[in-house]
Predict the 3D structure of the following.
Amino acid sequence: MNKTKQGLILPIFLLIVTFFSYFMPEAMARSQDNTYSLVYEQVTPSIVAIEANLEQGVSSGTGCIISPDGVILTSLHVVNKAKNIEITTSSGKTYKGKVVALLRDKNDLALVKIEPKEPLQTVKFGDSENVRVGEEVLAIGNPFGFRGTLTIGIISRIDYQRKKIQTDAAINPGCSGGPLINLNGEVIGINQSIYNPDNNRSNIGIGFAVPVNYAKDFIAMVKNKNVVSR
């Protein structure tokens, strides 16, 4: 190789390195943003807003459609002892809901039924045994009445003793019963509560979800008629 060619190799190499170091992170970020959007668009049609009239006032929450005929999975505390329940789908249609099954333990789960005129899109369940600390997750809910809100975070911790998935994805009042989703669009948890030492004045990034495998067990118990129902 002559000296002229040798002299050209280093500048070309530096040019390639500069190109990739400048453009690749931006391209990767765009790809990741696109993933979030695709997951949101895929899952949102199977998420509903819930308004329940309780003795102490109105309870707002979120639910996941689990069957095309209108069975919805949510948190027990959202609908427990409700006098009236209104379910609003992502398309804006509102239905009267009826609680059909309750799980009265720390897993805080309930099933509500509506009567849609057409089949509804359903969520896809993942396997909460496979979740890992540091894994990216998305939450969809209706915080403070702002329907269809997407937040993004990671799995911060898995509390095996309390059977909870901890996340820093923002969860606020109105998000209970909504899905915690992996980047494959699978529900891996049902959002339940936040750590709020200041009585709901702020979200400090510590939220909890019931692992979805417990929800799948609950649904199976209902099918086998081995759970409290109304």
About this structure: The helical segments are 3-43, 76-79, 212-223. Residues 74 and 177 are 4 Å apart (CA to CA). The chain has two domains: 44-122, 124-218. Residues 124-218 form a domain with the Thrombin, subunit H fold (CATH 2.40.10.10).
